[in-house]
Amino acid sequence: MRQSSRSKSSPGISKGWKVLSLFSGGGGLDIGLELAGFETVTCVDNDPESCKTLRHNRPHWEVFEGDIREFTPKGQFDVVVGGPPCQGFSTAGKGNPNDPRNFLWREYFRVVATVKPKAILLENVAGMLNKKNAHHIQEFLESLRSLGYCATYGVLDAAEYGVPQHRKRLIIVAGLGWSPTLPTGSKHFVSAQTAIGDLIASTDAPNHEPNCHAPHVVKRWSKLAEGEVDPNYRRGRIHSTKPSPTIRAGGGHGPRGDHLAGFHPPIHYSLPRQLTVRESARIQSFPDSWIFCGSKTAQGRQVGNAVPPLLAKAIGLSLAEGLSARYKVTSKARVRASANAKSASTEEATV
Ligand SMILES: C[S@@+](CC[C@H](N)C(=O)[O-])C[C@H]1O[C@@H](n2cnc3c(N)ncnc32)[C@H](O)[C@@H]1O
User: Fold this and answer.
1) Helix (H, G, I), strand (E, B) or coil at 225
2) For residues 25 and 334, which has the higher predicted lDDT (pLDDT)?
3) In this structure, are residues 20 and 80 in contact, taking their beta carbons and an 8 Å threshold?
4) Whose CA is closest to atom 13 on ligand 1?
5) Which of 170, 173, 183, 212 is the most exposed place for a label (fewest CB within 10 A)?
6) Is 287 in the pocket of ligand 1 (CB under 6 A)?
């Protein structure tokens, strides 16, 4: 069931810290930070459909649609955030160490070195910490240190931050001359049924168009128990009473284990079909008011690539608390930003 995240006022909320968002994708990180009182000013992404989504939902955000290598930041920003592409690091993919996408964090760093924000936030797959990729992290942390940043990092599971999904992500936060902290999670998990149960009866939710699977697939999936994986399609049925496994952007498999393009989320806990884009977005804790643009595959990619907004909100609240303490935000500014965050949260993140 969908619930409002509006309820409690958040103690960490302060001044509307200005955000420059790199590799913004479908905006998960940005809308989570917005719930914590931050204000995205500029987004950068080279995917036209993601840019369409950002412009559709937040027409006032400036969107640079193009390669980050051609982006020159203009203006002042308090915080630079972003999740460089992770296919090369991902344990789900082949993890090629020479994948050129593995080096895009250097572009992220180039922007940080130009802007010199008060703080930064970088998100990536936990696989970035694997031995074969560790030199990237070391180089990134050393580069930050050379500019005067103090970094903290850790792997957070989104399920511990109110997201109905186990999704482990590496989070690095750093402050210019100060050390931000990461939020502490809780084992009070939200179940998949709580998040998407009401959508079974919905015919008008946006991005909620079920796929028509072939009859033999429907037959196979009708027999799967909750939590069981179809070995042919390597696809699991989610458990109604537990958080879902990680929603991925792509990487489905055909009946002979062959790799498929497109969006292949897990199977619904009570229906013999895969989750819709909206159900997947709910599992990611996106609010229903956030519309995904582009083809169904593009919508799914944006959902599967995103930082769950409620995880981003938790990280944002910790970061905002550190920023307020470091930069001694006045109570007047605090009230103003609290109002910003309240108007953002009227859009209701799920669960
Ligand atoms: C992991 S996704 C980011 C998801 C986003 N942080 C969110 O929470 O929704 C990475 C994004 O980087 C973008 N990207 C990849 N290479 C890029 C490049 N060279 N320049 C700009 N954006 C790029 C992709 O289009 C993708 O949307």
Assistant:
1) coil
2) 25
3) yes
4) 23
5) 212
6) no
